[in-house]
Model the fold of this input.
Amino acid sequence: MKKASLIFGLVPLLAPAEAMAHVKWFCAYDTAIPPLPISDVFTSSFAAAAVGFCALMFVAYVVDRAVNGKVWARQLDDAITRYEHYSDAIIRVAVGVLFLVLWHAGDTILMPELKTTNGLVPWLQLAISVSMLFPATLLLGAAGIIGLYGYAIMQYGAFHMMDYPVIPGVAVYLGLATFRGAHFNTVRLSVLYSSVAVTMMWGAIEKFGYPCWTLPLMAVYPKLTLGLGFGRFMDVAGFVEFSLAFFMVTGTALLRWSCFALLLLLSSAIPAFGQADAMGHLLIIAALITMIISGQRIIQMPAVVVRAGILTQAGLLTFGYALTITAAFGLYYGSQYLAGR
Done:
């Protein structure tokens, strides 16, 4: 239990009291403007945060692998996964409510900042909401969601919609629910996990590249910085989001705690930012609840990681964490460059 207590102590370090509102829903933004030059992002504050979070991730992986396989951990996993049959209902209710609200609003495509004057969009959203009532129509609803996502790409561009891979991820999850077999269930859960993780990681890189978008929000809610300077706060906030998302797809016994920490962060924003935040985060919140129930049973690590000792596993995964951050920067900046050409 001492090891379990240690991870409980790590969670607050990974989760400062930051309301995880998506800045595009509340502040002016312009994706045509290039992000900060990499030289301005990689400051001494960024380097200190990077080293600190790499060390924290290493410790988290050591604890995670040490706990994995313990009798109490298996018993806890069995007790929670007993409720997995509710997972589909959670996602379907969330999608049904979201698209019913969107239909009522009448001018929003999928997320609060995606506005439209197309009169057909609300009726498609109503049809998607109704399709969640019946298992036989889930595939049609999933197709409708993909169609709206494609329409949003045409209206706002691919780079903007790369903020929301959770949308097609949920659509695939719903669409594969109509096919029977353990293989389809494994695939759709894997897609759901990955889409949520990538959504959060992408938002984290945005915090590094466009910190100026958050300045107006900090002026209204200065307590969110917890007394840190703005630059340091944005560095910490970006690493918190990225670290929790990465652990969400690479953790084992304690993977649920990463999902739960993200769930708390997202939920904490709703009282402060209201309906727009609730609507924008509803799919992610529902997905996180599903992931907490399912746990780590569908994510396969490479054999070189599985066969290694605890310290070696922690080292390899921390190295993978660092490489993933580097790759995410390259993808984000490269995508923005191509979008702005």
